[in-house]
Amino acid sequence: MHHGGGRRRATQTSPHWFAVLAATLAATIACRSPRGTPSTAASDATLTIGVAQLSPSSPIAGLRQLSPLLVLESLARAGDDGRMQPALAASWTIENGGRSVVITIKPHVKFQDGSPFDAGVAATLLPDILRSFMGPLFDDVESITAPSSDKLVIQFRRTSSFLTEAMEVTIRKPGPTMIGTGPFRVEGSSTMELRANKEYYGGPPPIDRIVFSNYQSVRAAWAELLRDRIDMLYEVGPDALDSMKNSSTVSLFTYTRHYQHVIVFNPRSKALQSASVRRALSYAVDRPALVHNALRDHGIASTGPVSPRHWAVSANAPHFEYDPQRAAGLLGEYRNRRLRFTCLVSPDSIEERIALEVKQQLAGVGVEMMVEEADRESIQRRAGAGDFEAAVAQSISGPTLIRPYLVWYTSSPVNYGHFGSAITDAALDRVRYADSEDSYRRAVTGMQQAFMDDPPAMFLAWSVGTRAVSKRFEVQAEEGRDVLGTMRLWKPTTARQQASRN
After folding, report:
1. Residues spanned by CATH 3.10.105.10 within the chain?
2. How confident is the model at residue 421, as a pLDDT?
């Protein structure tokens, strides 16, 4: 289940299942080649980003997931606490007893092809965009109208907490070329290169051109960054992080992603039919130890399907803790026989380490988890057919709850493994139809309890990501956000500009 909270922090040193979300600037003198080899006079306004093993064409694990981060925008964006913040929408009000949201669109916004974006355009585009994003939730939408060029009205059939959360859907014009309103635009038909949107309503970015350089491994891209041949490493793996901390030419920006490492269960399999057994497995895992041993401290122990930073999560919210004695008690029926099940894992070093660590910890309560390697496509196919017992995956879990709703609701098209149950579905629907902040809080607490009573997965750890950027660029680090969100404000350092003039 692709679709990826904790506090993100920026540190400067002197020195998948569920989707990869991911993201170039006209040279003033000359530019680097797409492979990362510098030209004789590299442009100050070109940023070259090293990425590892990403396909230029794959919609699942490719550069087509990176570019939208910089090309497309939303009516509103979600903070790490799940609260919506203005983006293309300047403001909004909730009316009609919580069934309508009246949105004021920012003025002077244009698409990257020069055509205007206003409320009328939004009302035309949003039905198809929301239908694609919301899946079965789109049935709640009654109408989308534009009473004026700057006013957009979205009306639901009944009060729903997802009325405003749906505003995070990205806006793009239909067609083969990715055209949005963001600070960068796709250059030609390739997503390997982006150019600055000179007509951007927030002002043209100081960076004129972004080039993505694809490498066979993170290590290869990392080496090119340290050799000063690229300007940014898109994702720093835990294996490289310690070494890069000692670099005097690279800044590291670490943040908690909206994805969790989970082990999903097939409750239709004989071994995992019992909710008590699935609860026992969750109590048997020491999550801080897993973060330390498997993730090398590059993660945050999870407490359930909702981010602990979400505004509706109470301090005493129910969650699984490490309790091997309780786990053993719940496994009482297996005192005279050993519980065995197989867990699928992709040939990914991090997911393999997670599987092996969980295997070792479960052995402590007499459970044998056998690890079977399979590629991601096979895992997804087998999960859809119910031909599995458990599998390691990454699941989007925020920052709003509309995404985990789509991931875990059993009839959602995104939930291809039909993970969950009638118990969790009912809890998710209570969140969906909450009609006040108090009822929303109660529904979130009930949702967390339901995911403990009949767990569809073991929630293990939040994924932590790190970006590495050459100190040749001044990076605006926004509290609580991935630095990619501020790339339109990045600029070459004064020292680099002076060196270029000389």
Report:
1. 257-463
2. 94
Contacts of 204 (CB under 8 A, 6+ apart): 183, 196, 197, 198
CA distances from 338 to 286, 334, 343, 362, 369 (A): 21, 6, 16, 11, 10
d(CA 89, CA 253): 28
Give CA separation, 141 vs 45, 145, 153, 160, in Å.
44, 11, 11, 10
Say which CATH topology domain 73-181 has: D-Maltodextrin-Binding Protein; domain 2 (3.40.190)
Q: Tell which wins on pLDDT, 156 or 216.
A: 156
Question: Looking at residue 494, what is its pLDDT?
Answer: 63
495 alpha-carbon distance from chain centroid: 35
Give the per-residue pLDDT at 478: 76
What residue ranges of the chain are covered by domains with CATH 3.40.190.10?
73-181
pLDDT for res 390 = 97
Give the pLDDT mean for 34-40. 36
| CA-wise closest residue to 433 among 137, 3, 71 | 137
Residue 64 has a pLDDT of 55
Tokens found for residue 314: 């109470």
Tokens (6 digits) for 389: 């017992």
Q: Is the four-CA dihedral 389, 383, 397, 420 of positive or negative sign?
A: negative
Q: Is 498's pLDDT higher than 70?
A: no
- SS3 of 306-330: the string is CCCCCCCCCCCCCCCCCCHHHHHHH
If one counts every other C-beta atom within 10 angstroms of the C-beta of residue 96, the result is 12
- First vs last Cα of the chain: how many Å apart? 51
Tell me which of 72 and 238 has the higher pLDDT.
72
For residue 325, give every residue at least 6 positions away whose Cβ sits within 8 Å of its Cβ, in sequence order, or none. none
Q: What is the pLDDT of residue 495?
A: 53
Longest dimension (CA), the chain: 79
**CATH number of this structure's domain 257-463:** 3.10.105.10
Number of Cβ within 10 Å of residue 342's Cβ equals: 15
- Secondary structure (3-state) at 156: strand
State the alpha helices, DSSP H only, in 44-97: 68-71
Domain covering 23-70+183-233+472-502: architecture: 3-Layer(aba) Sandwich (3.40)
pTM, full prediction: 0.83
For the stretch 103-123, pLDDT in tens is 999 999 999 999 999 999 999
Residue 53's pLDDT is: 66
Residue matched to tokens 């050993």: 338
